[in-house]
Write a structure and sequence with these properties.
This protein is an alpha/beta fold and 313 residues long. The protein contains 9 helices and 14 strands. The strands form 3 sheets. The chain has an 8-stranded mixed beta sheet with strand order 4-1-9-10-11-12-13-14, with helices on both faces. The protein has a 4-stranded mixed beta sheet with strand order 3-2-7-8. A two-stranded parallel ribbon has the order 5-6. The relative contact order is 0.14.
Length: 313
């Protein structure tokens, strides 16, 4: 028996969310916004909290600085039932803090800083991601997974033990990395889950089917392409599956992809078929967008199942 259902490996960030920012100054040094809030964020935090709410035994392997931001994040993780025993604490670098500007339609822009580029080494702790049913790489192509050696070490360790690897993606922000540079690792990734913008960036293709096919040609077993409000698509060597999105009033899209990933992995672990897992994941992502903050709207698995039953009537 594995100790955990899912171990997430990724970043932990304190998000300062500014909603409804008005770019017109009200004074020489003053601006207005609809609201401001502080939330624990980062793909590792978002995904592990969401999966814990969905009933999974979840742990997070990340780094936190020995500072107030790190303390706030760890408290939030524990409050939501995520095991924090795998967190690497360091005095070398501060916990990353991001400022996010959320527009009225839920889309957002963020400001990062050098703390986001600190490259901790999860491959140095194999015992922390091998006692699990699944491993989730939160942001392939961003620290710590913007180093081909780190990627290879982690995915090969999990792969050698028969643990499925799920990898979400991000467009690089500090160190550029291409699919060709990690070609030897891609065949050991079971599911990769880019959104449309990320898939276009890495493949140069414009159409979803061609984007997914380009990833498959590089060796990935399954490509799940997130299409925003249009839903998602899965492609592998034998089938292509489309699942439509949900009609919701989006408030804040921050963390929707991380909630999608948590929902998808949790249902695959439960034994659901791919279509059902995608439908569940779509609902998780949609629910996330209905409130400000990455971990605010999603409550539990029953909430998601209720949404699905209502939409399917």
């Amino acid at each position: 028996m594995s100790r955990f259902d899912i171990v997430f490996i990724g970043t932990a960030i304190l998000d300062t969310v500014i909603k409804g920012f008005d770019p017109e100054p009200v004074s020489v040094a003053g601006y207005r916004a609809e609201s401001g809030s502080i939330n624990a964020g980062g793909e590792g935090v978002n995904g592990s909290i969401a999966s814990a709410k969905l009933g999974m035994k979840s742990a997070l392997l990340c780094f936190l600085g020995n500072d107030q931001a790190g303390d706030l994040i760890e408290v939030e993780l524990e409050k939501n039932g995520v095991d924090t025993g795998y967190i690497v604490h360091t005095s070398e670098n501060p916990t990353p803090v991001t400022t996010i500007f959320v527009a009225e339609d839920g889309n957002r822009k963020s400001i990062t800083n050098k703390a986001h580029s600190y490259n901790f080494h999860p491959e140095q702790y194999p015992e922390r991601f091998t006692d699990t049913k699944a491993v989730v790489i939160g942001s392939l192509f961003r620290a710590p997974f913007n180093d081909p050696d780190v990627i290879r070490a982690v995915v090969s360790e999990a792969h050698s033990r028969g643990i499925p690897v799920f990898a979400d993606t991000k467009i690089p922000n500090f160190r550029r990395l291409t699919l060709d540079e990690i070609a030897d690792s891609l065949s050991m990734i079971d599911y990769i889950t880019p959104n449309e913008d990320e898939a276009k960036f890495f493949t140069g293709e414009e159409e979803p089917e061609k984007m997914a096919a380009a990833f498959l040609e590089k060796g990935v077993k399954n490509v799940v392409l997130k299409l925003g409000g249009r839903g998602c698509m899965l492609m592998n060597s034998s089938e292509t599956v489309y699942v439509p999105g949900h009609k919701i009033e989006a408030v804040d899209a921050t963390g929707a992809g991380d909630n999608f990933m948590a929902g998808f992995v949790s249902e695959i672990i439960r034994g659901s078929d791919v279509r059902d897992a995608l439908e569940f994941a779509n609902a998780c992502g949609a629910i996330c967008t209905t409130a400000v903050g990455t971990g605010t709207a999603l409550k539990n698995r029953e909430q998601v199942l209720k949404m699905l039953s209502t939409q399917n009537k």
